[in-house]
Amino acid sequence: MYSDPVQTEYSRLAKRYDSRWSFYINTTIEETLNRLDINQGEHILDLGCGTGVLIQRLLQVSPEAEVFGVDTCAEMLEIAKQKLPESVELKLGSADNLPFPSNYFDLVVSTSAFHFFRDPSQALQEAKRVLKPNGRLVITDWCYDYLTCKVCDFFLRCFNRAHSRTYGVAEFQAMMRDEGLQEVEIERYKIDWFWGMMTATAVNRF
């Protein structure tokens, strides 16, 4: 049994994660891709890659890109390995200590993972560290500005140790700017009656 509650929860969920959350996963990934500009041959990191669905779509959109994934849960990575080509490098690691060199990626993308991060400032600093100058950071996650997400956040913080917290647009924008990210833009939207999301984009200017 893992000591980390996120690893514990997702080691159990791994085999049924894609089927259980298929609508949510596919919709949030498409919304994220709609807000991405990918250039030919870029190095891309999926931060909190889970079972690799986003990486699959990134390779479909930009087959010449070099895509990497990192996740804290070995069982989720095993599922990802079964569906992804061997050229995709998947690593076990945490958002606050990324197992990649500095100034390596053109783009870091994270979908539906940020609310698990215990140290969000450190996670942003690590994303910034591994980005090249003028590299882009794109984060999609739940948005606390919606009532349904406020209620969900409250119950999860009470009853689910894996969950950390959900952020609103203003707070998240300020956090990203405080960590030195620039050109921060955040768009919020709903994918159905319940799920209120936001996608934040920023640039790593030196």
Write the layout of secondary structure elements.
Blueprint (H helix, E strand, L loop, with lengths): L4 H16 L1 H12 L9 E5 L5 H9 L4 E6 L2 H10 L5 E4 L12 E7 L8 H11 E12 L4 H13 L9 H10 L3 E9 L5 E9 L2
Parallel strand pairs: 1-2, 1-4, 2-3, 4-5
Antiparallel strand pairs: 5-7, 6-7
CATH superfamily: Vaccinia Virus protein VP39
Mean pLDDT, as a whole number? 93
At the first level of CATH, the class is: Alpha Beta
**Strand count:** 7
- Number of helices, counting only DSSP H or I runs of 4 residues or more: 7
How large a portion of the residues is in β-strands, by DSSP E? 25-35%
Spatial shape = globular
Order of helical and strand elements? HHEHEHEEHEHHEE
CATH topology: Rossmann fold
Cα gyration radius (Å) = 16 Å
Neighbour order of strands in the largest sheet: 3-2-1-4-5-7-6
Distance between the termini: 42 Å
What is the CATH architecture term? 3-Layer(aba) Sandwich
Q: Please mark out the parts with pLDDT under 50 across 5 or more consecutive residues, or reply none.
A: none
Fraction of residues in H or I helices: 25-40%
Describe the 3D structure.
This protein is an alpha/beta fold. The chain has one domain: Rossmann fold (3-Layer(aba) Sandwich), CATH 3.40.50.150. 39% of the residues lie in helices and 25% in strands. It has 7 helices and 7 strands; from the N terminus they run ααβαβαββαβααββ. A 7-stranded mixed beta sheet has the order 3-2-1-4-5-7-6, sandwiched between helices. Strand 1, helix 3 (53-61) and strand 2 (66-71) form a beta-alpha-beta unit. Helix 1 (5-20) runs parallel beside helix 4. The longest helix has 16 residues, at 5-20. It is globular, with a radius of gyration of 16 Å. The termini are far apart.
